[in-house]
Amino acid sequence: MTDATITTAPELIRAAPELPDLLPPIKLRGGILGFARRHPAIAIGGALVLAMVLIAVFAPYLGTVDPTALAPTRRTREPSAAFWFGTDMLGRDIYSRVLYGARVSLTVGFSVALLASLAGLIIGLVSGFVRWSDGIIMRVMDGMMSIPPILLAIALMALTRGSVGNVIIAITIADIPRVSRLVRSVVLSLREQPYVDAAIAAGTRTPMIILRHILPNTVAPMTVQATYVCASAMIVEAILSFIGAGTPPTIPSWGNIMAEGRALWQVKPYIVFFPAVFLSVTVLAVNLLGDGLRDALDPRLAKRL
Amino acid sequence: MNRRAFLKSVAGAGVLTAAGALATPAISQRAAARVLRFVPQADLANFDPIWNTQYVVRNGAALVWDMLYGVDDKLQPRRQMVESEQTSSDGLVWTFRLRGGLKFHDGEPVLAKDVVASLARWQARDNMGLMTKEIEQELVAVDDRTFRWVLKKPYPKLLVALGKVGTPSCFIMPARIAATDPFKPIGDYIGSGPMRFVRNEWVPGAKAVFERFADYAPRQEPNSWLSGGKHMLLERIEWIVMPDPATASAAIQNGEVDWWETPIADIVPVLKKNRNVMVDIADPLGNIGSFRMNHLHPPFNDVRARRAILTAMSQEDYMRAVVGDDALWKPLPGFFTPGTPLYSEDGGEILKGPRRLDAAKRLLADSGYSGQPVTCVVAQDLQITKAQGEVTADLLRKLGVNVDFAAVDWGTNAARRAQKSPPGQGGWQMFHTWHAGAVCIDPSSYTAIRANGDKAWFGWPTSAKVESEITAWYDARNLDEEKAAIARLNKAAIEDVVYAPTGFFLAYQAWRKNVDGIVKGPLPFFWGVSKAA
Amino acid sequence: MIRRILATIPVMVVVALFVFSLLYIAPGDPAAVIAGDQATPADVERIRQSLGLDRPFLIRFGEWLWHILHGDLGTSIFTNLPVAAMIAQRVEPTLSLMAVTLVIAICVAVPMGVVAAWQADTLIDRAIMAFAVLGFSVPVFVVGYLLAYVFALELDWLPVQGYTQISEGLWPWFENLILPALALGCVYIALIARITRASMLEVLQQDFIRTARAKGVGQTRILFVHALKNAAVPIVTVIGIGVALLIGGAVVTETVFAIPGIGRLTVDAILRRDYPVIQGVVLMFSFLYVLVNLLIDLLYTVLDPRIRY
């Protein structure tokens, strides 16, 4: 009750006196540190991911130079004071490329997670609610799942040209079946619940049912699933670059820095080493985050995700 | 015994007595000495050297099929399958007599009619072959060992055409196989050369196997490149395709392969340090890098824009990007192979000296360029084109050009470069490639130097001056006249910028110390090579 | 059961149509690559015609379907060999790699997961799970290069690359597959370990376990006989889903270790636009996937009698 209600209510109705506080206010014990102690996975994972995002966003201010500036005369120099991570086969500064590469890899990861989740959500909902479409949609999803994602991505890459957008689309398409299956299973199990039945009986239209009953229950598994999709998308991007079907070389990403340096890894291991470390740490962090969220939100999900 | 052999015997004994199977290596130690394991430059997907003109196909074909003539290390054609030839005094009638005792791999003798059929098939696909077809009056087998070739005009370079290294080389096949349409692949690989192709062990994309043909009769001469006696000291050669250079590098260090055709220059220091591996230059004729511009559409339809590129480009940048730090490259102010008799630097001043970015920007502005996107098609799966593409993109950015970088694979590149449509509609303005030095010695196989507009190679340059000098070269009667013609040709080609040469570069080859007889040459020569245990 | 099998046919038709249309739209011209650098546009056109590449989409698709139904997968554009023969040549290495990877992964991951579940929330559990997560955080080729460098080049315990056919000896065959299987298996081990732990955790809470323990049944027996059998269903599901993952990872592993398998064949074919090979291989993959999932469904009926078709 706000002051507004008191002042605008008619004279005859007087606000009840304030009740004494029977229960102490809920306080997060120990604040952030307490949270971290109870959910170490979320804390560590989240902190690392945040660090990577910050690195990506503030890359121009962290002592970097133009990541695409070539200087073939000073190619493959070892890490030194001038070039913290060394230079690659075309003389470009690896430190700058790795930091700017964070932008691409993180963009790919997050975009794929977002797009796949959205598309999977829509498809899963349709499949769960519109019963006659369920069979067809699931068969199509099955078909898509039977094509190995890497091969699908290469084929889609061969369709046009290498670009960040194409990489995102290719990996997203490969991940949609997973998300849609998850949403569909949530919808199917919830559809049988008594309160949903009651809502239908009361005449609530389907969109409202979806909004108020189904969606809130999909948030938890979908969030966890999204983190896994993000992590795997970043790895798939690296593998696509390895095969030569990833982002174009003018835009550095961890995947294509490693791919370019792979022939030399025995002589100049630092070209592959630094992006590999950054990629692994980021993917690890995202996975940890996902595990932590899953355990915090609903440990039973562990059996399915 | 090395560690692996020891572990193998212990573990093998343990695991396999349990499993009841015995680990018998397929080839015993002694026999292994006669097997050479070679890592080729690319995959041997099919094996018709007339239908498919890739270098790797020619390299394998050189083992399986013999040629009428073969060039030596001075690039002079020498008799190979031919015993003697006679020319009429007017140069119009050529009569050839084949050596005796030549056999195909199925035991049949090589007859003149097989030669005639093979020549006909080769003519349909080869530049010089087409020229001979145009002036041909008659090509016929006179008897089993003699054939006659009658021309309407003299063609002094006939023997060079028959013995050359440039693809497609003129290989001799049985008549029934040579009857196959030159635009369709042959189905049978019966050859006339020193090794047989073992078809049932062929795994396209992974492995190809050759075995010595016992009935091959080599000439009794020392061999020199494609000429002389092709004496095989090996019983069996296995070509093992390795898509990953790091794997090939580890394999040759470990002794799992014996000869690697194309080690990357950066890995070479590690190989040189290994006591069991030798490294040397592969082909003294090297390669010429090529930056092709599209002469049909803006901005490069204006010679000033093309000259802007030559003014600003740094061959050192290109070459270092392609071959690394070593002294494997030379600047190339021209279009012909350094170290050959016809090499010329005439007109190449624009490529020499400090680079002039401002002058280049002015030239570009003069040509009318005003910021439109310019499409640069770069194949990502070939290291040489990829490296050159990135240097070009950087160069263009420095010149203030709006670059549309199309990162594709070679298949798409090959398709796209054939499009004459404007860039906005699937066309292109730039792509990169390279040419083998062996082909760039003179205009005979050098399709990339032609400037006859629509009929020219991709880019379709037009330059009357270049074309007339090419004709002058064909008409030249001696070496001095040839040199003069080439010098003028070089100057004209640079003035009109037929394409932009990015430099001259060499490559290495690597082999294990127990392999003997490896020579430098435009392709890997397996005759005379032996392997100690 | 029959209905399940029949239901898979539309799946494969969908896949076939999807792949075929994708390739049809894709740019890139195998005829141009074959014709080579010196060819004129007229030459390329002649080659394209002789390969039948200039006919309309529906005709080519229809013709292909017709051939498939007669067991003819077509002829490769580049090698001129029958696609079925090419696939048959390259199947053994890939299947061997996948089989060995599966076996190694299961043998390593299931005990890992069981131990982690048993020691839930202790240091051992966290260590095992951290190790497992690391498994799918590092890209396959990095792991591959590291393993090859350490075990093959430096220590010389195993070969760097290649594949030996099983007909040439059991140990040489296995020797060539150890490193690739370990590299490929990392991801798989991580997944299986996690699912095993989660599933076991749930089963271990149940009453019948407490009963068994009260009866004095030994710990190992409880874990591996009673609990695992009941936890098996989700584990087996993950194994099935993971086959598609394996195929993708196999492509990279085959490249790094120079194994002449189907993965490399497919990538080479896609990059060259060797349409018949691509179509044949993708069809084969979807068939394999369907088969594996069918087997898994059968396995469910064995593991959990409540499930029936």
Task: Describe what this molecule looks like in 3D.
The complex is a heterotrimer of chains A (305), B (533) and C (309). Chain A is mainly α and 305 residues long. Chain A has helices at 3-8, 31-38, 40-57, 94-129, 131-146, 149-159, 164-191, 194-201, 206-243, 254-261, 270-297. The model of chain A is unreliable at 1-6 (pLDDT under 50). Chain B has 533 residues and is α+β, with helices and mostly antiparallel strands. Chain B is 30% helix and 19% strand. Chain B is built from 16 helices and 21 strands. In chain B, strand 15, helix 13 (383-398) and strand 16 (402-408) form a beta-alpha-beta unit. Chain B is globular, with a radius of gyration of 25 Å. Chain C contains twelve helices and no strands. In chain C, helix 5 crosses helix 8 (170-204), helix 8 (170-204) packs across helix 10 and helix 11 (262-272) packs antiparallel against helix 12 (275-303). The N and C termini of chain C lie close together (6 Å). Chains in contact: A-B, A-C, B-C. At the B-C interface, helix 1, helix 8 and helix 14 of B face helix 2, helix 3, helix 5, helix 7 and helix 8 of C.
Task: Quickly give the structural class of chain C.
Answer: mainly alpha
Provide the residue-averaged pLDDT of chain C. 79
For the CA atoms, what is the radius of gyration of chain B? 25 Å
The unreliable regions of chain B are: 11-27
Tell me about the largest β-sheet of chain B.
Answer: 7 strands, mixed
Helix run count of chain B: 16
